[in-house]
Amino acid sequence: MRRPRGFTLVELMAVLVITGVLAFVAMSSWPAYMQRTRRAAAGAALVAALSQLELRHARTGKYEEDESLSPGPMPHAAGYGIRSQPCSGIDIGPPTTQCIEVVAVPDGGDATCGMLVLRSTGEREPRNAACWP
Fold first, then answer.
1. Cα end-to-end distance, the chain, whole Å
2. Is 89 left (phi over 0), alpha (psi -120 to 50) or beta?
3. Half-sphere exposure of 54 (CA within 13 A, CB side)
4. Is the CA virtual torsion 72, 47, 120, 111 positive or negative?
5. The whole model's pTM is what?
6. Which of 36, 41, 56, 116 is disulfide-compatible with 104, CB 3.0–4.6 A?
7. Other CB atoms within 10 A of residue 38 CB
8. pLDDT recorded at residue 4
9. Cβ–Cβ < 8 Å for 37, 107
10. Structural element, H or E, at residue 85
């Protein structure tokens, strides 16, 4: 007598339940993963922008933009606006003419970290390690 081939209904249902549980776990962690990815891209863009500004400062002695000596456009990160400005909120340290900060402002808001700030003095804000993956 020949034995029937194939899967039983119970086996197929077990596979579907396991697949559904794995999909639920993956989908619930997806937004956090995407936020970490966007923060990492913004951090990399801040480092690139600060290195461009430091190159300009090394060539000209100032951070202000001079189109003839500009090393290139400011980098950008998806979901963040990148801008540079003189350092603010530093109690002790170099004068604002010798300190520059680059700021990444999230387009849609970020309740955990808010703006990411990287200064030419090496300071990072916020100081939360989760904000700088």
1. 63
2. left
3. 13
4. positive
5. 0.71
6. 116
7. 20
8. 74
9. no
10. strand 80-86
